[in-house]
Write a structure and sequence with these properties.
alpha+beta, 16 helices, about 50% helix, disordered N terminus
Amino acid sequence: MWHELHQNNEQLIEALYDSVACPERLHDFVTDFSKRQNQMSAGLLILNKGQRPRLVIESKYPLQDVDNYIDNFLSQDVRVQALLNQSTLASYDQREYISDEVFSNTPFYRDFLSRMNLFYSAGIRVIHDPNTTVLMGASVPRSEGGVDPTIVEQMLQLRPHIERAIRLGQQLHFKMALNEVLCHCLACWDIGIALLDVDAVVQFANPAFERMLNQSSNLRCHDQHLQFRESSLNSRFKTTVSKLARTERAALLDESAAYLVARRDGNMFYQLVLMSLPKGAAIDTQGVLVMLSDPSYQLEGRMEIAGRLYGFTRSEKQVAERILAGQTPNDIALSLTVARSTVVSHLKKLFRKTGTNRQADLTRLLLHLPAISSEQAARLGVVEDEKGLDSGD
């Protein structure tokens, strides 16, 4: 019997697993299951903690009826409550048969099921944990008086597949949400990200990467290929991309996996790093991850975080920015047109606020702070001086 049921349910199972990537396919699964029995109706009720209940029922029912059931009748459905109230793990195969006399007096029956002329036959609990409950049920017209017991057996045989498909769908939803969060974080940090194939053809590039690429004087995208303008440098770059695309280890210590990218405005070079993709990455081909960052931007972004964490004033932030850029107190005094003693005074305050004693320690601390975009920095704000740097001693 099991083998026969398994063969009969092959198409059902295929539609079920298709629903992991396309949740609408659950309707196909339920409708096809219903068609296998004469005049039977079937449905899946999915209850996720903190979310609106979801009822997947065969396609012939209007969405308004489904919404009415969820909004008005779910708590009155004694069939559902019978399955929800089971406490033991083995109770997912509990068969609930409710007579017409017991059920017909409930408001749910009078307002909803009587219009459908249905008689409840059986249901199983597929999943029941603190966060997710999934029930599967089947009904038939009252004139039929009941259903073949093999319907319950079929539901039980499908139960592990339904559970696995629901779990896979939840994992996929979580990964998609996580990807959105990571993309948002990358946008905040203003890091350029691109994906190259083994021939250095650009498969994907985020807006930050495209912006920095357009501002570069020696790196370009030509016929979809990422390449350096200087031929010998580009030859080494292509060799490195090809090598990394075929390995499972990111060769971060290999000097050929990191490059300086010149800018049209003559400011500090962009930094480009190549990394091989980890084993099992969800792509269809070999590839290389490219990260492009702007060190001058990172200095700027870190100061906004430092100002927030340590309460830097605007004057102290200006001094800290220049310390991080490698300037001496004399250089800072000249660039800000103030006395050296003023810079030293602000530097002492920076030491006190950060718990450091030397410029090297202060620089190390600032370098370990994350960088954020100017837009995010504006939302954070910093403690401001009303007068700015004092130009006197």
